[in-house]
Amino acid sequence: MEIVEGIGIGVAVVLAALLILFIRRALFTRSGGIIRLSVRVSTMLDGRGWSPGFGRFAGDQLRWYRMFSFALRPKRVLSRKGLAVERRRLPEGQERLSMPADWVILRCTSNHAPVEIAMARSTVTGFLSWLEAAPPGAVSPRLASQDWPAA
């Protein structure tokens, strides 16, 4: 009887954890301004270190939340003021296995620190529009002037 109770408690804990994850995601996605976004959290191995999540636009910030996390606070915050796109590329090697085929990787600098983000090709236009839409009198971040892959 103790084994059955233990299994029941274990199943209840797993179901509660899944419920919390889905409620957390529903709270963030219902307000709009959400995009699917992966951030490269580690560059130790080529093509690895990508973490899936979603980004939320909040004023001059892009807040990135990990997909599978209980945290209510963003894991990373990118400010529009210090963010500039250096280059854009398609996934290569192992990266093609870890993200959808229509995604694009943007290498950015955020306050002089490099960051790589990946998003759907259809989302890139909106992201770049948000990035360039600085308030009046502010200097718009530069975009690298190089050939980008065709859409």
UniProtKB/TrEMBL annotation:
Has the keyword Transmembrane helix been applied to this entry? Answer: yes
Q: State which residue ranges cross the membrane.
A: 6-27
Its keywords, alphabetically, are: Membrane, Transmembrane, Transmembrane helix
Classification via InterPro entries: DUF2550
What name appears for this protein in its UniProt entry? DUF2550 domain-containing protein
Q: Which organism is it from?
A: Micromonospora sicca
Lineage, opening ranks: Bacteria, Bacillati, Actinomycetota, Actinomycetes, Micromonosporales
